[in-house]
Protein: Glutathione synthetase
Organism: Mycena albidolilacea
Amino acid sequence: MATSTSRFVFSEWPPTLSEAQLEALTLYATTYALSHGLLYLPPVKPQPLIPNSAIHAPLSVFPSPFPLRLFLLARRLQSTYNILYARIATDVEFLDQVMGAVEGVGKVDDFVGQLWTGWKTLRDEGLVQPLQLGLFRSDYLLHAGLDGEPLSLKQVEFNTISSSFGTLSERIAALHRYLYATTSYYNVYPDMKSDDFPSNNTTAGLVEGLAAAHAAYNVKEAKILFVVQAGERNVFDQRLLEYELLEKHSIHVVRQTFDQLADSASVDSTTHALFISGDTEISTVYFRAGYTPTDYPTAAQYSTRFLLERSKAIKCPSIALQLAGGKKVQQVLSQPGVLERFLRDKVPAVQLDELRESWMGMWGLDEESAVQKARDMADRLVLKPQREGGGNNVYKEAIPAFLDSLPPLERQAWIAMELIVPPEGTGNYLVRAGSEGAQSAVKVDVVSELGIFGWALFGGPDQGVKEKEAGWLVRTKGKDSNEGGVATGFSVLDSLLLV
Ligand code: ADP
Ligand code: MG
Ligand code: MG
């Protein structure tokens, strides 16, 4: 049945465009993107050291409809999430239990185990920087539910490391506003008003978080270190943060990979200050790498990560905060009483209920009965390991065979989550930079994922959490792909039309 709000029918989106209108909008969109830094490096391997060309990021021609009430709800929840994850990251006992290599997921997941074991060693030595910075992104899908229930907001996951597309999402929102301003979308949807395009100030918001950490470190000439992946194509998304840091806050940035840092980074044995190339002091380490095992091909990259962790620079995120972002933590939070452990004193019970209502059913696979439940409900489930970056999950009909092949000892590293069911029949025109410049918009049925950014600076002796919401992101994927992931090629950048 068709999903609708009082004034909007999702299956009627997007409005119909003539071929000439679509071609004109595509030209406006791609040239705007190329002019405004909505860019990617081209897919060539190896990436040249000094790039001389770029392509526009994959994008949608229309913004995607989203109920105003659920957009406001998602933004309202962010502050609670910022505090919640700050508290999880400072609850060592909880993290040891859930993610540790003695009792938790780290026992059976080598990557989690390596990170936790390194962190444990450093803890035993004594960590010198209590402050931690999180730049978060909480991701949601619209859930249509069954039998004409009203649409609801359901959380996909909460990211605590390398949450990307902040600055590009600000630009695609501006792009859609520009298309409306310049063409009125040819009046194919007369109900559209400029107020329906919400503003999006992710760049200033995220940089405010980085600048707050830098200020707390309190060494004027120090710089911020961006730890990046070699061959990264999403560099403009990162550079735009650098430019804002310099222009608005006079903060300089150094970009290095783990392999470069192996040679360049050192920690002063007396002050524990982190230096690059001997003389550049680092206030804050911002990770846009280090979230996936492939970033650690040898023990050397782990050693570098632990060297940074040992220093008194503020880490975004610390290993503890990275572990707090595990899918296992998300599942454990949904068990009775766990949310209260972190937020009882801070947040009224109604707000906790609002948070809980945004979760799908989740359970661990430790016990035989839980595995059986996953087999029985496979059609309505996704299984997730403790990984980031897309392409790691197992869906629906693939679940039983996957469970057959999974050694029982490894089950603890996975969670089962009920599938969110987005509104049927919503479409969009998606544009991808083609080879040889050939490109046209394709109309497909889509699913749109909303991400809300936030930051938190916490861990000091006063137990305080300084935090803010920091804008939003929409990624839209073809309906037939289980996974999103702009970087992995399954989806496009998009923005919102509030309905
Ligand atoms: P990652 O950390 O790799 O991004 P996610 O949990 O975000 O992992 O899963 C990747 C993608 O899989 C999501 O962007 C979404 O498209 C899809 N997905 C994940 N969980 C669900 C769910 N419960 N219902 C429907 N789709 C989901
Ligand atoms: Mg995700
Ligand atoms: Mg993730």
Observations:
- Residues 139, 141, 156-157, 360, 382, 384, 387-390, 392-393, 417, 419-420, 449, 483-484 surround adenosine-5'-diphosphate (ligand 1) (CB under 6 Å).
- The mean pLDDT is 95.
- The longest strand covers residues 442-458.
- Residues 4-360+420-498 form one domain.
